[in-house]
Specification:
Blueprint (H helix, E strand, L loop, with lengths): L15 H21 L5 H11 L13 E2 L10 H4 L9 E3 L6 E6 L3 E7 L11 E3 L4 E3 L6 E2 L5 E3 L8 E7 L2 E5 L9
Antiparallel strand pairs: 1-10, 2-3, 3-4, 4-9, 5-6, 6-7, 7-8, 9-10
Length: about 180
């Protein structure tokens, strides 16, 4: 006895039309995901550019970082600040999470970098010793000159830097080292 079946069986593989439908839907979904991703704001891009390369022509009117403040928390104006400084004597300012020392050059002028008063040997806070014109680490005795260079170890590296930008009569502190160590 032969058993016959009247039912038609569907092919087990998808049709071309279904395959094209899946491919088109997947492509549109991928495109939608790319455009729905949050894009960085232009200000963030400009902050990155002007923090890394403050002399870039696109940054002439842009104020990167944060404004330097005096001990009372007041904004520091360059034209009022510089006449009160002495070249070779670092000046403490606020603005970043910890104090930053501005390096004062001949002129007087503000150097394009500031010093973080943190000893690279073990991370102790260094202290400016005005009578000896140097920074000293109270933990292990390292000594640094007014530009943050090592005078005596055990520290082998100079004090870490931040970028300082002088623009629109403001002193701006950028929480990153200059691209080239100017010391």
């Amino acid at each position: 006895m032969t058993h016959s079946s009247n039912s038609q069986s569907k092919p087990s593989h998808p049709s071309r039309r279904s395959l094209l439908r899946y491919m088109a839907g997947g492509s549109l979904g991928a495109i939608a995901m790319v455009f729905s991703r949050p894009q960085p704001a232009a200000a963030q891009d400009l902050e990155e550019l002007c923090s890394t390369f403050p002399q870039n022509s696109r940054c002439l009117d842009y104020l990167p970082g944060v404004q330097a403040l005096d001990a009372a928390g007041e904004a520091i104006a360059v034209d009022a600040f510089l006449p009160t400084t002495t070249p070779g004597i670092p000046q403490p300012v606020q603005g970043l999470p910890n104090v930053t020392y501005l390096v004062i050059q001949e002129g007087p002028a503000i150097a394009p970098y500031g010093l973080r008063p943190v000893c690279p040997h073990r991370g102790c806070a260094v202290i400016w010793q005005a009578d000896q014109n140097r920074f000293a680490c109270p933990c292990h005795g390292s000594k640094f000159d007014a530009q943050g260079r090592v005078l005596r170890g055990p520290a082998r590296k100079p004090l870490p830097l931040v970028t300082v930008v002088e623009r629109q009569n403001q002193i701006r502190l950028v929480d990153r080292a200059p691209s080239i160590d100017p010391r």
